[in-house]
Design goal:
Elements (H helix, E strand, L loop, with lengths): L1 E7 L2 E6 L11 E9 L2 H8 L9 E2 L4 E8 L11 E4 L9 H4 L25 E4 L2 H4 E3 L6 H5 L4 H11 L8 E5 L3 H10 L6 E5 L3 H10 L3 E3 L6 H9 L4 E6 L4 H10 E9 L11 H4 L5 E3 L8 H9 L9 E6 L3 H9 L1 H4 L3 E5 L3
Parallel strand pairs: 9-10, 9-12, 10-11, 12-13, 13-14, 15-16
Antiparallel strand pairs: 1-2, 1-4, 3-5, 3-7, 3-16, 5-6, 6-8
Bound molecules: zinc ion (2 copies).
């Protein structure tokens, strides 16, 4: 089969690789019908994720068709259409028993395209297949379903639910990239009064408006704190989501929240940030961090199937598998190309 292989920092190739085989009774082999690229894959390619070793097939999001199941798989059969989630779950360990699948101790968690070969391939081996896939309901397209592999549950769980968004809230989202936009989509499920999107790129703010932001702020030309003060009589936002992953944006997020509010960090950080306890010890803040657990995926699948959540606008560029290199190029130059999520499907 063909697969997108990480060859070491800065090097990748769409190349021939051995077909995956069943290794454990709980495994399934899935033919990948649709796959996407995550910002995390770009971090891996830069060499920022040293656990990923050379010759690893990348990718942790896919929709596909089961072709083979191990002897221990009970709920899937060849021919089933499934979403392959970014998080696998052994289902048995302490964390899985508490639905914290992202922290799985039994060999699951974020393993695809990280510790084992991933989904950017014609076929993928999915461990713990009963617990790590979700059936695609009738009437839901591969493309819509694919957005539920990572960015939608991540923004919903780590942003909206950790941030405790409630009806009537003023919600500020710092960063309007794919995760920030998905946070806008999923925050709307909880009927906030006003969603404020904050980003330095006007093109991203335009996208934020189309996804449902009520107010957009470019901090290069406007003070986000002033805008939020006007909306909240000087209190600050009820919930601020950090969806960038830099020290400055984290520290700004803490400055935008009201006393008693929530700061939900979604961004992936690579450098230390300062927590200004000397200012906030008195403010009754809740600050959360997290890796997605995907416990919300069944809810999100239901919302898409019931046409209460529309993810189609996330996909800005479409490619076939034999254009994988071009897809990476477009996705990695998102500031110029306007790429949010790129969709790759089987070559015709
Ligand atoms: Zn991802
Ligand atoms: Zn587990």
């Amino acid at each position: 089969m063909k697969a997108l292989v990480y060859l070491g920092p800065g090097r990748r190739s769409w190349q021939e690789m051995p077909d995956p085989q069943i290794q454990h009774p709980g495994d399934a082999i899935v033919r990948v019908d649709a796959v996407t690229i995550c910002g995390t894959d770009l971090h891996i390619l830069k060499g920022d994720v040293p656990e990923v070793t050379a010759n690893r097939i990348l990718g942790h999001e896919a929709v596909g068709t089961v072709t083979e199941v191990g002897a221990g798989v009970e709920t899937l059969a060849a021919g089933d259409r499934v979403l392959v989630s970014c998080v696998s779950a052994c289902g048995r360990c302490r964390y899985c028993r508490e639905a914290h699948y992202g922290q799985c101790l039994g060999g699951g968690g974020w393993i695809l395209g990280h510790l084992i070969d991933g989904t950017q391939a014609e076929y993928v081996r999915v461990p713990f297949a009963d617990n790590s896939t979700h059936r695609v309901p009738e009437g839901v397209s591969d493309e819509q379903m694919l957005m539920l592999a990572d960015i939608l549950p991540t923004s919903y769980e780590v942003g909206v639910l950790n941030g405790a968004v409630r009806p009537g809230d003023v919600v500020a989202i710092v960063g309007a990239g794919p995760i920030g936009l998905a946070a806008i989509l999923t925050a709307r499920l909880h009927s906030p009064r006003t969603i404020v999107a904050i980003d330095l790129a006007d093109s991203r703010l335009d996208a934020a408006r189309t996804f449902g932001a009520d107010v957009v702020v470019n901090p290069g030309t406007q003070s986000a704190r002033q805008v939020i003060d006007q909306l909240t009589s000087g209190l600050g936002a009820d919930c601020v989501m950090e969806a960038v992953g830099t020290p400055g944006t984290f520290e700004d997020s803490v400055r935008l929240v009201r006393a008693g509010g929530h700061v939900a960090n979604i961004g992936v950080h690579g450098a230390p940030a300062t927590l200004h306890l000397e200012e906030i010890w008195i403010k009754n803040l809740t600050i959360t961090t997290g890796l997605v657990d995907t416990y919300s995926t069944p809810t999100l699948v239901g919302l898409v199937a019931g046409q209460r959540l529309d993810t189609t606008a996330m996909v800005t560029h479409r490619f076939t598998f034999d254009e994988f290199e071009a897809a990476y190029d477009v996705f990695s130059r998102s500031a110029e190309t306007g790429a949010l999520k790129v969709l790759l499907t089987v070559s015709q």
